[in-house]
Amino acid sequence: MNNSVNYIQKAAQETHSGLVIFDRFDRSIVFNNKHSSMYEFIDPHSSHTYNDFVLGCVMHRTVNHQSLYDEPEGWINYAREFRRFTSYSQSFSHHSNGRIIQVTYERLRGTDGWWYQMRRDVTDSFLDHVRNGLDVMLPFGWGDTVAQPTQSAFVVRLLDALPYPAALLTPRCQIIDGNQSFVSIMSRGDGFSVLGGRLCIPNAIEEQDALTKRAAGFFRRRTHTPVTLRVSRLDQPAPYFATLSEPPAQHIGWDSPTTGILLLTIVDPDALPAVSPRTVADLLQITGAEAEVALALCSGRTADEIAEDRGVERRTVYNQVSSILSKTGLRNQAAIVRQVTTLCWHFGSRA
């Protein structure tokens, strides 16, 4: 146990991260100076609970998540349930001062319910990647602050850590592995199905053709830029957004190359956490009106439908889309959808 704590403390020091370790009663037993400097309202000379930390963030308006201030007890209860079922996760927190903090959580093995959170300021790296086209699975130092798993279970750990349906495919759309959310979509038969072990879109031949061609040609392109496709659904007007990209790790299970393996992530616009236009505008450095258009695209609306909803000419919306592409360097509307979807999952409010 002492070895685990010493390792984590050393990793936090090397990565300039704030560290706090809690016991099974959610009381802090270790926290370093970096954590104290990031959250000055915490007394460095006394223990505090996780509840104290959350309520301190509320009192000092530390983070830029309105739902935290609307229902802090809801956040505390959600976190408690999350820790019951999750052994490891990484997420991002958008602070009110504009800083973006990577939060690593892990339960400590061999202890009586101890767990830790490590917080690292990744503002510069995050904004650089946003400007250069953020992949939904882009890791900011994935594994930098924790030891690599000793068992060959990285794929399962990776997929299960994602908040949305995800699977690994071959370029022929053969399904290698998937998380529980992906299995749930398959079981509903809504938009996707499996035929002979391959992923299919049975209700739209043209969409199936697009999926097959994009998957088969992904690694033949000079740059392996993520590709987003719209997938029609049977009972819902909003489509799924399916993104093909490379897995974020260099190895699967740390002993097999990922060359030729695709990561598929599926987003249901109706299930996306809500994010404010202001947050999108700040992170993408676009105007508030452009952020509203970007969010509408992310909800499955076309540019023509957005113009009708907003009571403006189509040319106005098309100009706003062009402005977003120009300011962000993104290539097309699908890239805008992928970008904003990522921001929703990282910074959106969950019920």
From TrEMBL:
GO molecular function, one term: DNA binding
GO biological process entries: regulation of DNA-templated transcription
HTH luxR-type domain sequence ranges: 283-340
Gene3D superfamilies noted in UniProt: Winged helix-like DNA-binding domain superfamily/Winged helix DNA-binding domain (1.10.10.10)
Protein name as annotated: LuxR family transcriptional regulator
Organism name: Azospirillum thermophilum
